[in-house]
């Protein structure tokens, strides 16, 4: 105890908060060992950060030794076996059935041992926040940081998933609809109610009740505690907003946002977000006054609630009040209808219970972000389907405004397979600049493209996706280039370049190379800590580890959870690997190369021991 108190006095302040928190856990032997490891790492970081080795980076990502120096020989053999099994289509297509049959035949104990020796051991870090620490420590010693995700998923049938989704996506009072035209995209359809349809690389939550959302929040809090206690201020926890509330509310909010954009287009022309019009209050007020709206008191209230600055109106509605002050949604989203000469509601009138459900969702999100801020870690809000995403992005930006005042605590995710990705990112960057908060973004290609295309075709609305892979890559690179350009502008003006932080979350070598080359071209160094890279645990190690070991900020997305409860996650990973056979071929080739090298050099019993310090 005296040793730990000494560390608390002498360690960097950024580590003190979670060290003090861990002192409360000293009765737990896992916690004692973890805390001593944390204290030792903290002291080592203070002494050795500047002396951390940096390897030259092979931009072709063909260096097998660099890719796998963090692995034991057994782990290389296991990886080769797992990737080989993922190449058999029949096996992968029926993997969930095979796992269930194996568990029934072998029993839980033998089945758990089998899974830990194969798929679970390869794709999952461990069972709980204590058992994953050795994995996190080893990753860190080879220059890689974690994004934690508790990957327990419900094993629902299609019928169960559809029933839950339909019931939780419609208003309680279906007769009490709004008096503006409904948008097809933002209503539930039973054909696509199982949101797992054609989705392999993303986890799906299905709403059951408010108690389940509370449990999800508690799970995310445990992830935050685990990442704070294991990563020394550099870790991230990934969350989904659909885990924290009723999907009906996200659908309705998304529809409100798109109706507001349509409303601005009809009044002032042009297209895009409200902010992009650069319309002043005076210009909007003149058009409304000319329409002779009968309820002038409500018009005045609407105008007084505009979010604006010297450059014009940013939002038609007081979103800060929705997040900060628990304003009722039904009374907030009303606009003057210039054609009918009266105020109209853009959202179906919510019941008292539904308003409370929305406040609960906001409370849960506030609890999580405040906890992340207190623990000095970050939260990454995952992107979801386009019929949820306008609401998810709008709320996430408001939490950025609220919490990203001194550093980026909250990150939003942007899917570059969407046609509007570039416009959405640039608009959000503009809001961050005008409201003076730190902007954090994760750029991904996206997980829902096949589902989005099928849904748009079936329901008869415009396909929101790019036409092909090349168009998506172009969108990704264009969006990333714009972010880098703005970071460079901040640097040139002598401002804090960390006002913009970007994660390049991609398993595509060309995209990673593009990002590195653009960083060099623009003059952004890895040590600037404004660009980081991320890949899934046990996927594309030949990208992640060489990046981390050469001084770039590199992350692994780390799933964890009990063996029997992460089977749906493992099933998706197997399916995803079947779909990226070219990457598997390269991974297997590099694994073979490293195994042969170790055999030829007598290093078959190699023990990984890194001394890298992550950026």
Task: Describe what you observe in this structure.
It holds the Pfam family Pro_dh. It comes from Nicrophorus vespilloides (Boreal carrion beetle). 53% of the residues lie in helices and 10% in strands. The chain is globular and about 85 Å long. Helix 1 packs parallel to helix 3, helix 11 packs parallel to helix 17 (352-375) and helix 19 packs parallel to helix 21. It has 25 helices and twelve strands. By secondary structure, it is α/β, with parallel strands linked by helices. The model is unreliable at 1-43 (pLDDT under 50). An eight-stranded parallel barrel has the order 1-2-7-8-9-10-11-12, surrounded by eight helices. A two-stranded antiparallel sheet has the order 3-4. It has a two-stranded antiparallel sheet with strand order 5-6. Strand 5 (334-337) and strand 6 form a beta hairpin.
Assembly classification: single chain
* End-to-end CA span: 30 Å
Q: How much of the polypeptide forms β-strand, as a percent range?
A: 5-15%
The helix fraction, in percent, is 40-55%
Number of strands: 12
Sequence of strands across the biggest β-sheet: 1-2-7-8-9-10-11-12
Which structural class matches the secondary elements?
Answer: alpha/beta
On the 0 to 100 scale, the average pLDDT is: 88
